[in-house]
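Record type: monomer structure entry
Structure origin: computed from sequence
Chain ID: A
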Amino acid sequence: MRKILVSGLITGIVSGVLLLLASAYVESSAGIEIMTLLLNVDFIFERSPGLFMEIIFHLMVSVTLAIILKWLYVYKPRLYMPGLVTVGAVVTLLYFILSSLAVQTLDLNGYIGFMLWVIFHIGYLQALHLMFRLGL
């Protein structure tokens, strides 16, 4: 179990940072606020916890997902792919939930923001899967 926790920590941080960097690049170059949506926790707190804490929350979720998926990959391989699909579906729904709960109005450019959100999260799941297959 310790190996799964360490693997989940490493793969969750690496894939979470990759997702964050891709989102930050799109936000800075095109103005589509994908990173802001990704880090959106303003609706939980009375005031914004700050960028650093938002990144920590994002990475905590990423590590948690990585640990769960790694456990499925090792101990329940028949449930691993359905688990990936379930995470993908939940993340897709989170786009709508987070954008409606956002305290500030986000410029997501309609379907373009949604498509980028989905594509980036598919990339996140692919990065996790690749690292699992490489033995990380």
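Annotation 1: The first helix runs from residue 2 to 30.
Annotation 2: The chain has a mean pLDDT of 93.
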